[in-house]
Amino acid sequence: MKAKKLTILSASLLFSASSLAQVSYQIDLTQPQHHLAQVNVSFPTSSAENLTVNLPVWRTGKYAVLPLADGVRSFTATDEQGQALPWQRTETGEWQVNLSKPTAVNVSYQLYANDLGTRVRHIDSSHAYIDASGVFMYSPEFRDDNVLVSMNVPQGWNSYSGMAQGNKAHSFIADNYDVLIDSPIETGENAHYRFTADGREYELVFWGEGNYDAQQIVTDLTKISSQAEVIWDDYPFERYVYMVHATSGARGATEHLNSTIIQLPRFNFRERKDYLRFISTASHEFIHTWNVKAYRPQGLVPYDYQNASMTELLWMAEGSTSYFQNQLLLRADVITPKEFFADLAKRINNNLHKPGREIQSVAQASLNEWTNTGGDYAINHGVNIYSEGYLASLSLDFNLLKDTQLAHSYRDVHRQLYRDHKLPKGYSVDDVKGILKTLAGKDYQPWWQQHITQPFSLDFDTLLAQAGLAISYGKEPKSTVYSGMTLSGQHDDLTLSHVSRNSPAWLAGIVAGDEVVAINGLKVTAAGFKKRLEDFSPQDTINVSLFNNDTLKQLELTLDEQPKGELAIIGVDSPTAAQKAFLKAWLGIDWPFDEQGEFAK
Q1: pLDDT by residue (tens digit) across 530-544?
Q2: Which of 116, 255, 459, 506 is the most exposed place for a label (fewest CB within 10 A)?
Q3: How confident is the model over 261-298, as pLDDT tens digits?
Q4: DSSP string for residues in 408-450
Q5: Comparing 3 with 419, which gets the higher pLDDT?
Q6: What is the mean pLDDT of residues 220-246?
Q7: Residue 272 class from Cβ within 10 Å (0-12 exposed, 13-18 middle, 19+ buried)?
Q8: Gyration radius of the chain's alpha carbons
Q9: Parallel, antiparallel, or unpaired for β 252-255 and 259-265?
Q10: Where are the beta strands (DSSP E) in 166-238?
């Protein structure tokens, strides 16, 4: 499909809107090859003694403090006459401009933008990706004022954003800085597509060549949009932009007010497993347009761009979004029931192999997200707001369906949050509990205490049986040895990236970072490590030779056992009408299994 141009709004309308802009941003991208730009910001007249100018220390969608100000050099400030104003650097992301009298203030600085993988700023000879978090400074005094962004770009570049276009090419307007910071800009050499769904305008912009099928993506994104009504009453946007970077390695995604940015290695689109990863991510970010961007926990309202914003409900903001993402794809017939349940099975398996589920609750994980570094300690002593947030959402959904005899589901909770707690209101834990009580006619405090406030371990067999589902490791389940040791995964590397808490290896004193060299006196390789362990039986004691802090050690461990094969979800034999109805109310699909409990298609 050939690129299509954006519909241009009438000149009179654009002039009227842009004339309201009081904070003007200009960015020069005409020499992008060294990742540099020149930024100029014009603030209205201030009567304060000092004008505070900030660059955020984090970006929305990534709950971590980032060194964004490190990309700023040659900061200057002048008054409306062009005279230099004195200033001081007062905080990591703060400058104070001294004013001896009321004046408009112009700020200028050089920007270095080579942070593609953080999805904040990236400039090179082919494009620029601009997230205001790491590009455009603001003043708290004028945060609520209208904004105009003008860009000077190389010839042949095209510019797109969820913001409205300005009255000239490569310019955009926003109601305020909060809209600007949540409306990234993609400008450069790109491919552009437009489509409509449910009365809304959509755009799809690709930067970078890759093995993607743009037409298939447009088709599936169209299907996803039509499923939003199963959760929410309406749309929080009129136009939405999907930005896709086909990269040399960077991957990830970030939600925004009226758009999303998705990054994948350029040849990770064609194969089905790769495409499922991409389209599930697109669904996830689309859902975020409601869950986080239209309504979010009070701890994140309004965004405090200069400080970490704490809330114990990040599991709802992120984990519940993960929970709904494949449900929308399933209802839209973008993925099959088999693919949906394969993903659920993988999530359950990962949870069963995460000792941290016994230590940390999803509420505690939400509060810890700003300092979470992942790795061995996090797996052994913590949970994840995405993965365990997904399972908390699953448990809550099943409880609501059961308690209301299928009259209400977790979807209704989010429908009500969207109705009653749109920004700038936000919602609290008590608000969620209040909605649950209204829907179910009972107090959900005991459930909340057991599953959210405290660490939880789900009884998946009992939970899934309500929908006629069961966990299986094959028709003839077998067991194999279990050591608790996980290699780094790098080629020929026998370094342990993880040792599961209370596993045989853990109890033997083996730790992450140890390098295994031999088992029972015989050399092992990374490729043959798993097979070598399978030479033994559960309860066998083996001698492991390893380097710990460059010191050779020999430790004995007694192997345990675990199920052999992959965990799968199947249909139970002879499901009842009630079980079929439960699954239908949960996922919106008919019974997908044949008489043997296998997927019918």
Answers
A1: 999 999 999 999 999
A2: 459
A3: 999 999 999 999 999 999 999 999 999 999 999 999 99
A4: --HHHHHHHHHHH-TTTT-B-HHHHHHHHHHHHSS--HHHHII
A5: 419
A6: 97
A7: exposed
A8: 27
A9: antiparallel
A10: 171-174, 185-188, 191-197, 200-207
Residue written as token pair 């460059």: 550
Strands 200-207 and 87-91 turn out to be unpaired
Listed in sequence order, the residues at least 6 apart from 378 whose beta carbon sits closer than 8 Å to its beta carbon are 356, 372, 384
List the one residue out of 565, 570, 566, 545 whose CA is nearest residue 555: 545
Q: Does residue 424 have a cis peptide bond before it, meaning omega lies within 30 degrees of 0?
A: yes
d(CA 85, CA 81): 11
To the nearest whole number, what is the mean pLDDT of the chain?
Answer: 95
Q: Where do the H-state alpha helices sit in 471-519?
A: 504-507
Across the range 97-104, mean pLDDT stands at 97
pLDDT of residue 601: 67
Instruction: Report H helices in 79-212.
Output: 177-181
Which candidate, 244, 250, 255, places its Cα nearest to that of 211?
A: 244
Do 139 and 53 contact (CB within 8 A), yes or no? yes
Helix (H) and strand (E) counts in the chain: 17, 30
Both tokens assigned to 576:
């009842």
Structure-block tokens of residue 393: 């959402």
Query: For residues 220 and 294, what is the distance between their CA atoms, to the nearest angstrom?
Result: 23
Assess whether pLDDT exceeds 50 at residue 45: yes
Q: Which two tokens stand for residue 507?
A: 């109890």
Q: What are phi and psi of 526, to 5 degrees?
A: -65, -40
Question: Please, what is the angle between helix 410-420 and helix 429-440, to 10°?
Answer: 120
